Target: Mce related protein
Amino acid sequence: MSEQQMQFRVGLLAIVAFCLAAVMAVKFGDLATLLEDRYPLAVHFDHAPGVYPGTPVSKNGIVIGEVAAVIFDDQHGGVLVALSIEPQYRLRKDAAPHLSRSLLGDSSIEFVPGSGPGWIEPGARLEGVSPVDPMKLVADLGGRLDRTLAGFDATAAQWSEVGRNVNGVLGDNREELNIALARAAVALEETALSMRSLRQTADSASKLMGDPALQQNLNRTMAALPPLVEETRQTIVATRSAVNRADATLANVEGFTRPLAEKGVSVATRLDVTLANFEQVSGDLADLSTMLKKKDGSLAQLASDPSLYRNLDASAENLNLLLANLGPVLRDLRVFSDKIARNPELIGVRGALRGSDGEKTVR
Model:
């Protein structure tokens, strides 16, 4: 084999090896993702154990992307995980990223599907749910178990002390306990008798309620209740109206009595003067009554002597007759005065010397 053939074979072997390496890199290195137009998302976790670039991102158990980078969030604290999501998978706005870890320590980010409207925009920042550390749970559980066991120890000690106290009480007060038990037995027997009496009472009540006549009376009473309630309501309304009218009347009375209260002094003074006058009039009436009681008085004579009354009656009749007779005289005087007024010469020398035309003159 010549040197040229050897070089050709070595070169051919190198080309085949390079091609195999390229095929393996494409096959197992998932280099096809470099050619896809993925969209980024940022997820904030309080802590993200086991997360590194390349950690799978899934939804409903199907891988939809991977972690592109993991950085510390100095502004808000925690860890900011950059995701690279394949373009054919879209996430709703209420989808929640959860960081989960397997028993072997492998981590993955699982999106819980949402059902709300709208889609997550590329480059959006989401709040993720950090996983629960099993070791921390075990440690917390251990602390709680220690506290629980300590509480059990204290409770057991207290129950031991209670048992000793009960034994002491039972030993010291056995006779009193026997008496108490006997009384309890008597009380139980009386309770049983009371229960039997109560049962008999209930049976009697059941029989009584089962009486058709009683049921009919109850139905009649229940039927009469609505009219009674209506009448009661009307009575209440009428009472309220009467109370309102009484309030209005009291208000009017108050308006009437307020001026009296304001002028109380003057009103009292006037009442005092009026009562004094009334007292004086009462005294005068008493004097008049005393005078009437005197038999020799004029008023008593007028009240008791009928002749005085007859004389007064006759005087009144004569006065009426006199007035009746004075009527013609007054008419004659009127005619005479009229004639004198017309002919004054009838009553003197002057009238005889000086004639008159018969007309009245006014001076």
Observations:
- The first helix runs from residue 3 to 28.
- Residues 342 and 359 are 5 Å apart (CA to CA).
